[in-house]
Specification:
The protein is of the alpha/beta class and 478 residues long. 44% of the residues lie in helices and 15% in strands. It has helices at 45-63, 90-98, 102-119, 135-147, 176-179, 226-238, 252-267, 298-303, 308-316, 328-346, 356-371, 376-388, 393-407, 411-421, 430-445, 449-461; strands spanning 10-13, 18-21, 29-34, 67-74, 127-130, 151-154, 157-160, 199-203, 223-224, 244-248, 274-278, 281-283, 286-287, 324-325, 464-469, 472-477. The structure holds adenosine monophosphate and zinc ion.
């Protein structure tokens, strides 16, 4: 008898800088935390690359049988324009820009974020928690850190004392440039800090006195630092042990480094053993970023005629641990590949039952790809192997639907739509129409425009309308 393969899921862990087997704290259950958006502007397609890859990770955990609890915060207060705790509050800057209140801005861009993620087939996390809903939890955590001697009051703010830790730079494998993310030229050193890396847990003093949202606290009227939000929200919903924490790579330092420092000081033990970081989406100018402006959004892609799922496909074709360069030319190639894929699926017959035994070898290949550090491009190769395979159409459709539980490319739905759109109406001779389209293509290639127009008119006379696009000519019934 064939021996069952013992499947291990291997993930690259930024903590330790190696690929490791993923083993959650509690058998069968994964507690996963995702840094959510700072809702002062639209999410750009770089942010969304991170959320797409995290969505695949979550869905793959579910696919292999884990019960997943996924938590995400909404940063609606405390994120200053430099990650090193200086500069203006991003939310306030957004409110000023649009002449609205901070809460109006937060609601508007939170809704916009979930509308974008829905279009990209990104599942909404089980728990979504705006930071402004958790002020008592932040205050409790900060107070405990003071009581335990890990935090101090200075100049009206509460700071975390990094000198109290044996090691602060836990992501030691990161290079100097990445560690310098928060230490930009425009940052003036905060003289209240005892050590360079200390960070603010609670602000009552900031250079920007017009901070809109403030709450009473034992240290005066103020607002939380950004880093404390994620620690407290995670502990509130996942308890003392989190299995995996995700975010874009720019979050590793200082944000995640600070999260680890304060969470472990608070809990007194290791908090989260696996850290999953998605590399950046780049454009001609480097990292796509909200603060630089000129970024691309889902609505902009839609305005230009792209289906958001083509962008999801674009992301899945490359590995999450490699920077991804965006260009419209690359996206056009993806659109063509996506349309061809859908067309091939649309041709599969929907009749018959799948052969579940025969399907297993294909599922094994799909799992091998994703078990190996979430190799989505190999998982897509496994999908093409299904289409090429010597198995029935019913088995192919079954496998595609099965893989799409993780890939979420809407393949079966798109194929059904395509099949319905191109289904021949009674009395319509599809072969004849396609032959005429081919003849017209040849005529156009030979610059015989009169013949090309004649064919168009001939088809129109029998109620068939042609539409030319970059991808070729399609037809519909008038
Ligand atoms: P923000 O809304 O700025 O707090 O960022 C939301 C998420 O997007 C975080 O996990 C960031 O690390 C991530 N992110 C920011 N810029 C990029 C980018 N160009 N490519 C991929 N992820 C990004
Ligand atoms: Zn966070």
């Amino acid at each position: 008898m064939k021996k069952e393969r013992k499947i291990k899921m291997i993930l690259y862990n930024t903590l330790g800088g190696t690929k490791q087997e993923f083993i959650p704290h509690e058998a069968g259950k994964v507690k996963m935390y995702t840094c959510g958006p700072t809702v002062y502007h639209y999410a750009h397609i770089g942010n969304l690359r991170t959320y797409i890859m995290e969505d695949v990770l979550e869905k793959y955990f579910r696919y292999i049988g884990y019960d997943v609890l996924r938590i995400m915060n909404i940063t609606d207060v405390g994120h200053l324009s430099s990650d090193a705790d200086t500069g203006e509050d991003k939310m306030l800057a957004g409110a000023k820009r649009e002449h609205k209140t901070v809460m109006e801005i937060a609601q508007f861009y939170t809704d916009a974020f979930f509308s974008d993620t829905a279009k990209l087939n990104i599942k909404t996390p089980d728990v979504v928690e705006p930071a402004t809903h958790c002020i008592p939890e932040f205050i409790e955590m900060v107070q405990t850190l003071i009581d335990k001697g890990y935090a101090y009051l200075s100049g009206g703010n509460v700071y975390f004392d990094t000198s109290k830790l044996d090691s602060y730079y836990v992501f030691g494998n990161m290079n100097e440039d990445e560690l310098q993310v928060g230490v930009r030229e425009d940052v003036t050193e905060d003289e209240n800090k005892r050590n360079k890396n200390d960070f603010v847990l609670w602000f009552t003093q900031s250079k920007f006195e017009d901070q809109a949202l403030k709450w009473e606290s034992p240290w005066g009227l103020g607002y939380p630092g950004w880093h404390i939000e994620c620690s407290a929200i995670s502990i509130k919903h996942a308890g003392e042990y989190l299995d995996i924490h995700c975010g874009g790579v720019d979050n590793a330092f200082p944000h995640h480094t600070n999260e680890i420092a304060q969470s472990e000081a608070y809990l007194g033990h290791q908090w989260c053993p696996y850290w999953f970081h998605v590399l950046h989406l780049l454009d001609k100018r480097g990292k796509m970023s909200k603060s630089k402006g000129g970024f691309l959004t889902v609505s902009l892609l839609e305005e230009k005629g792209y289906d958001p799922l083509a962008y999801r496909f674009f992301c899945l074709q490359s590995h999450y641990r490699k920077p991804l360069v965006f260009s419209f030319e690359n996206l056009d190639n993806t659109v063509q590949a996506y349309n061809k894929l859908v067309a091939r699926i649309a041709k599969l017959s929907a009749d018959g039952e799948p052969d579940l035994e025969a399907a297993k070898a294909y599922q094994e290949k799909f799992r091998e790809a994703l078990d190996n550090d979430l190799n989505t491009s190999l998982a897509i190769t496994a999908l093409y192997d299904v289409l090429k395979g010597d198995i029935s159409d019913a088995t192919k459709r079954y496998l595609i639907a099965d893989f799409d539980k993780v890939l979420s490319l809407g393949l079966i739905e798109a194929a059904e739509k395509k099949a319905a759109d191109t289904a021949p109406a009674e009395g319509v001779d599809v072969a004849k129409i396609e032959a005429l389209i081919e003849k017209r293509k040849d005529a156009k290639a030979a610059k015989n425009w009169a013949e090309a127009d004649r064919i168009r008119d001939e088809l129109k006379a029998s109620g068939i309308i042609l539409k030319d696009s970059k991808e070729g000519t399609t037809w519909s019934i008038e």
